[in-house]
Design brief:
Elements lengths: L11 H5 L3 H7 L1 E4 L2 E4 L3 H12 L3 H8 L3 H13 L6 E5 L5 H10 L4 E6 L2 H7 L12 E5 L12 E7 L8 H11 E12 L5 H22 L3 H11 L5 H11 L1 E9 L4 E8 L1
Parallel strand pairs: 3-4, 3-6, 4-5, 6-7
Antiparallel strand pairs: 1-2, 7-9, 8-9
């Protein structure tokens, strides 16, 4: 029996309940299987990341067996970044994607790590600040649903494993669309449902037995590491997310799946 409650994978109707329209109508939002008032979820998410920030990078590498770094490199390649471009890393946390982007845009370019949680930003700074070639990375604490930059500021906006934690998913993507220049690119790297049913069963066992146990042993919070797979099971599937991005104003939307669909990277162009 699982050490933590397994909410199973949501069907399409229940996945739609996680979107802006339903949340605004009901005044209720979920973070994992827990329901909060619409205005309360952001605080719950902030408290969650305060707990996990000190060991965030270590735990992500451990729990993914290091494969997360392969996914991130693959996703960044899809952007075809150029020297001199300006990149916004939304929900940028400890800066893995920002570091990869920084090396590609070079000294003439700029990358901004943008996150509502300062503890997450601070946890990543020791691997960025001492490295001279990463001096083009800056930090801004702010809300992804109300991005603190003018329209048409960036060539690229990207979000890695963070968008599903927002209260209003579409609002977050709309804000990224707003701050992009016409023709700018969006990257969304996020967890998804594995394709193969047998593999999916093993993934579920790992998610609700091994991950919470390691979270308790190493971080002192099983709940924090059960919440992660809960949120994944509620997130739109790749085709659904592609249609959402198109409805917001992105064209040429395509996606690439990694490791049997555990992670999926979407790229779109601002029309």
């Amino acid at each position: 029996m699982a050490l933590w409650q397994n909410p199973k994978w949501f069907d399409s109707a229940r996945r739609r309940e996680q979107l802006d329209e339903h949340i605004t109508q009901t005044g209720q939002a979920r973070f994992g299987i827990r329901a909060f008032g619409e205005q309360e979820k952001a605080g719950a998410v902030r408290r969650h990341f305060n707990r996990v920030a000190p060991k965030y990078d270590f735990m992500n590498s451990l729990l993914s067996l290091g494969i997360q770094h392969v996914w991130k490199r693959g996703a960044i390649r899809m952007l075809d970044l150029r020297p001199g471009q300006k990149v916004l890393d939304v929900c940028g946390g400890t800066g893995d994607l920002a570091i990869l982007a920084s090396r590609r845009v070079g000294r003439r370019g700029a990358v901004v790590i943008y996150d509502i949680n300062w503890e997450m930003i601070a946890a990543g700074r020791p691997k960025i600040d001492p490295v001279p070639e990463l001096a083009n990375i800056g930090y801004v604490q702010g809300d992804a649903e109300a991005i603190a930059f003018p329209d048409h500021t960036f060539d690229v906006a990207m979000v890695g494993f963070g968008i599903r934690n927002l209260t209003h998913l579409k609002r977050g993507f709309s804000e990224m669309h707003r701050v992009l220049k016409p023709g700018g690119k969006l990257l969304c790297l996020e967890f998804s449902r594995p394709f193969n049913p047998l593999f999916r069963g093993l993934y579920d066992f790992y998610s609700f037995n091994i991950m919470p146990l390691l979270g308790q042993l190493l971080v002192g919070s099983a709940e924090s590491y059960a919440c992660l797979p809960e949120t994944i099971r509620m997130f739109p599937l790749p085709d659904e997310l592609a249609r959402m991005l198109e409805s917001i104003g992105f064209g040429s939307v395509n996606y690439e799946a990694f490791t049997n669909g555990i992670a999926v990277a979407h790229v779109g162009v601002k029309r």
